[in-house]
Amino acid sequence: MKFLSTFVAFENLHEVRRLCHWGPIIALSVIAICSTMAMLDSIIWYWPLDTTGGSINFIMLINWTVLILYNYFNAMFVGPGYIPLGWKPENQHDAQYLQYCRVCHGYKAPRSHHCRKCNRCVMKMDHHCPWINNCCGHLNHAYFTSFLLLAPLGCSHAAIIFIMTMYTQLYERISFGWSTVKIDMSAVRQFQPLMPFSVPAFAATLFALGLALGTTIAVGMLFFIQMAVLLQSTILIIKNKCHAKDRIQHYQTGEEFIFPYDLGGRWLNFKQVFTWSGTPKGDGIVWPIHPKCHQHTLTVGSPYWLYYNVLLFRQSVRQWFSKSN
Ligand SMILES: [Zn+2]
Ligand SMILES: [Zn+2]
């Protein structure tokens, strides 16, 4: 039980309901199809028990599947961490800088946002991800990012297996005629494989190849976006809304904008999220900040916050006018 509880946080088991949603159903189906087909095709193409290469290939496949599912389920079930209902800052004076959430009946801690889908204020909310049917935030940021890295790696490996299986199985069945190419799927190969590679097997492999390539490209792009966000220690919402640094420098205010949670180095920002224990540093409420900033530099009520939003508004109005002209 103790061994199991290191992998599964039992207090989060009620979160299993999150599986009943199109996002996890599609994501888990893609993982199941790609890994099952890759294992079956490996048996045909590179029998694992005869050669070291075959064994390594098969063990790596199992490895990808386990790691991908481990990070995926942790991202979903551990969740982002929520601000306690009715939360107030310890120092009453700080309340003036914070927004009040009427749904959670409490103040929004720095970096937290209220998610309408989760119906709670989420610690360091990055975005609500439909594929894990949960928010990506403080506690699951590392699991989520690891999943985004591992899924394209696993899918690329699977894609190589699909291509090699189809190539080796079809090679002796293709005949080239005068301006025609014929594939004889009933032809018996010189070395009879353990399992027959029939038309349905070919179609299933081709389908799985499409899924694997699509996942590699789409999830791989998400990984690079997520890493850029994580290394600058910003969050996706802020990044999408404003590109703060660019715009403020664009207005030549003469003052450099410092994002308060950027600790001043990519490695420092990385270590804050990725730890050996799997639990990120901090309590999700009070954040380490850049020496030139304070806890409420970016929260409502602070002069900087107002200044920053006026600039963004002006920029949006200008863009709107330049588009309409
Ligand atoms: Zn709330
Ligand atoms: Zn959410």
From TrEMBL:
The keyword Amino-acid biosynthesis does not apply. Its EC number is 2.3.1.225. Keywords: Acyltransferase, Membrane, Transferase, Transmembrane, Transmembrane helix. It is an enzyme of class 2 (transferase). It is found in: Membrane. InterPro entries: Palmitoyltrfase_DHHC (IPR001594), PFA4/ZDH16/20/ERF2-like (IPR039859). It is a multi-pass membrane protein. Pfam families: DHHC (PF01529). One of its GO terms (cellular component) is membrane. The DHHC domain is required for palmitoyltransferase activity. Belongs to the DHHC palmitoyltransferase family. This is Palmitoyltransferase.
